[in-house]
Give the backbone structure.
Amino acid sequence: MRKNLFVLSLVALFALMTTSAQPYDIQFDNKVYVDGIASVQLFAGEDQLGEPVGALGEATFHLFFDDLNLEVRHLKYTFIHCTHDWQPTQANQIEYIEGFMEDDITVYDHSFNTIEPYLHYQAAFPNENISFNKSGNYILFVYDDSPDNPILTRRFMVTEPAPAKIVCDVHSSADVNNRYTHQDVDFTVFTGGYRIRNPQLTVHATIQQNNRWDNAKYGLLYHSGSAGELHFTYMDGTNTFPGGAEFRTFDISTLRSNADRVVGISFENRHTHAYVLQDDARPYSAYESRGNINGRCYYRNRDLRNDYSEDYVFTHFTLKSSFPFNEGSVYVFGELTDWQLLDEAKLHYNKEFDFWETGLFLKQGVYNYQYVYLPYGSNVIDATYIEGSHYETNNIYNIYVYFQEEGTTYDLLIGHHSCSIVDRER
């Protein structure tokens, strides 16, 4: 009997290890697959505005999201290890996940005293049931009972416990044609205890601007250096980003009065509506310095301090422009749209009042946003067509440095650093 059980165990283990490293039909990006799933957050530590990046064996990641459908679900999640450019690695999950290959999401609460009811889910990992043993890029994959029913995917990054030191310098572009509109991101990596024999083949870097992945610079190779010191400095635009403009903002954390840039709040057809102050297109305006959270949002209800008391509000946007948008479409953009071009965030022309408008169903809080332009036939978002571009803009740049050790097929994340042009001016 024991012999039979041993044989069956070997067969099961062999089947698991020979299973395709990527059996899931999902996108390796931040995406929601089901209507009604909203306000997804993933961050390391306790700060709601924190990044989804933390050290191996040290950081705890927190996932929060709402289900406006109030459906009974058997939610589970797992992890998928990815390369530096967000492709699935060839390793099987058993090689980088410890414990169970999946875990249940069992913690949820009903919203409190809200007009729009919802279920608020949360999970924290790694935990006693599931963890990971390698650094690098990961996809968090949440599904309903089976991977065939995806709910959401989220990118997160795990650094080595002893990361390399990164020194960064953000400055106006070295290209004279872009000096007043673009920013260069130069940085140096001090590899420390990592034995890197062939960095041209084994070290790659990524630069991310303001939590956006659509315009991130992937696969950057060091330009020059010496033993233990790699310089990522370019003169050909490899590390150049449009500066853009400071994000616009509005505040719907209270529904009892008009807060920052909210001109009206009403209750219509059994829903709460908020109207954001009309915006103007500003492609040629001078740079305006203003404090913001770089496109992020912070959920909060100032009227009621109970947990899960933030209500959902139909939030209306209007944009006035002195020039038409005949060759493309305009969208509201930022973390409020998951940094995606959503159909509901697309603006439509109101001929009667001569402005562009749209509305989004948003959770109470403080928001940053901007208007972006997508030319017909293109998949490249232009955040400067309406907002303008300035080298002074306080963009946050996240730098990630990856190292593929000899004899392995996966990228370790050996360094992470955040910086902005403001750091240079201090």
Notes: The chain has three domains: 19-159, 165-243+393-425, 248-375. The chain has three helices and 31 strands. The helical segments are 2-18, 199-202, 421-425. Residues 60 and 127 are 8 Å apart (CA to CA).
